[in-house]
Specification:
Blueprint lengths: L4 H29 L8 H15 L4 H10 L5 H9 L10 H18 L6 E7 L5 H13 L8 E8 L2 H9 L1 E2 L9 H7 E4 L2 E4 L1 H4 L2 E5 L5 H4 L5 E6 L8 H14 E9 L12 E6 L2 E6 L1
Parallel strand pairs: 1-2, 1-7, 2-6, 7-8
Antiparallel strand pairs: 3-5, 4-5, 8-10, 9-10
Helix pairs in contact: 2-4
Length: 289
């Protein structure tokens, strides 16, 4: 059946309106989280938002946009952040960084600590389902605790996604998550069952989880005087202004001579000149100076 001109025009107007509203939702997300969906990722955003429309039984993006505007402090924002920040991770994803942490960074920090502050504070910012902070905890327990028995290690792990945080707190993982682990580490730090691999309580107890939006200054200040920040594969979701704001916030809560560790493909070039670039074997990190 051929459509007449008026029908085609109506369809075009509806599609244009929906796209305009979608861009408004995109801008709302950006304003509240710093996460930016460029034109190449708009379809991805649309696909994920449709899940919320179905759940809430909304008929259009306009209804959802009005709902977000009228409920700026509702739980829906957490639901929204959950569906747009879906990530996969696995243990010891960056083994070279963990080796540098163990051999160079933590010993240096401990050496420079004052006698009245024998605590090393580490923050895994954007921890997803917990593989990164637990990998840090395993590294500390396996290689460092016996050498620094008077030192306390505090690991804060945060994410904007509440669903992934629940999974992280539970600590149950599948084959993919543990694919990089040597059998001796797997058997020592996990309980293996038909359900998967459960991280042992001694490692769980080393990590404190929190729901933190890295674009929110008040929430970021929950962490303070941190010695080491892991912020891997998080800034890739931000545009330049958002990266500048977030990195500045991280700089402020780092202790003097503290370290910022990014993903292998990430850089502060064009983002911040406040850090010194430090080269370790196979690893580049940033140091607060």
């Amino acid at each position: 059946m051929l459509l007449n001109y008026d029908t085609i025009l109506l369809i075009y107007k509806v599609a244009t309106l929906e796209n305009d509203i979608l861009l408004k939702i995109r801008d709302l997300i950006y304003h509240n989280s710093g996460i930016y969906f460029n034109e190449n990722k708009i379809h991805l955003l649309e696909t994920r938002l449709k899940k919320r429309l179905e759940k809430l039984e909304f008929q259009s993006f306009e209804q959802y946009y009005d709902f977000l505007q009228a409920n700026k402090h509702s739980n829906e924002w957490k639901e929204l952040f959950d569906i747009i920040t879906i990530n996969e991770s696995f243990f010891f994803r960056a083994p070279e960084q963990l080796e540098v942490l163990q051999k160079y960074i933590i010993p240096e920090i401990i050496q420079n600590k004052k006698d009245n502050d024998a605590t090393v504070r580490i923050w895994s910012a954007g921890c997803s389902t917990g593989e990164e902070p637990y990998s840090i905890a395993i590294t500390i327990d396996e290689y460092l605790k016996s050498h620094y028995d008077k030192v306390k290690f505090q690991i804060l792990a945060s994410d904007i996604n509440t669903t992934t945080l629940k999974k992280a707190k539970r600590g149950l993982y599948n084959n993919y998550a543990v694919k990089n682990l040597p059998i001796e580490i797997l058997s020592k730090y996990f309980t293996i069952s038909d359900n998967g691999y459960m991280i042992n309580d001694n490692i769980k107890n080393m990590v404190r989880f929190a729901n933190i939006n890295l674009f929110d200054e008040n929430q970021v200040k929950i962490a303070h005087n941190v010695d080491i920040i892991f912020c891997e594969n998080v800034l890739i979701y931000f545009d330049i202004p958002s990266k500048e704001k977030t990195v500045a916030l991280l700089y402020d809560i780092l202790s003097p001579n503290g370290y910022l560790i990014l993903g292998y493909s990430e850089s502060l070039h064009g983002i911040s000149k406040d850090f010194s670039l430090i080269h370790f074997p196979k690893v580049i990190v940033y140091k607060k100076t």
